[in-house]
Write a structure and sequence with these properties.
Blueprint lengths: L3 H12 L3 E3 L4 H10 L8 E8 L17 E6 L17 E7 L7 E14 L7 E12 L2 H19 L9 H18 L3 H16 L8
Amino acid sequence: MKTPAVTYYRLMVSAALVISDRTDAQEAVEFVRGKLDGYDLQLLDWVRLYPMTEAQHHSQLDGECPPVTLSTCWKPREANTISHPPLPQHKYRIKVNVWQGNDYPAEESNWGRIPPRPIRRRSIPDRYTTRGLCRWRYPDRMAATVHALARPLFLYLASTRQVSLNPSDSNASAWGHRWAVDWLKSRHQDQAAEDLITQLMQWTLIQSQGLPG
């Protein structure tokens, strides 16, 4: 059980986090900051939110929807040593890009849990996978911003063992869905929240321990 002093310290660390926003998404940023209350953010150097460029908003494959968000969580440059307080080289850094166009609602795809399908290989003829690209829809730019910030923040929390989940892209996407659903419900966008809940359920119905072999 946390002592009051430790709890107070962690809340102060959370309150000190500055998310640099160049997209005019203050409400979404404040929502995300509120979701971080109680977590230890002393190893998080900075979080920066930028507009997505035209070059970034470009499909890499024919027929694929162009990306709407890009999220990166960089690990510390020096992970084997630590100082108190930690120096910048011991900290994580997060950069997020969000599309600012007027073409919302917008679809996006990323790694997630999908119904199992066989992988045919000579050495493993009957192996199955439940990981693949899933699609979902952002109703507006603010929901996209919450989702995009939540994903790398999850990777930070999982890498620092503050949540009991593997720091994988599929888990990060599911975390982003949960925060985006909470955001939409807080804005009374109930139908959009239900749509994301349906996508999230697809990922959680099939778990990796169900893989044969």
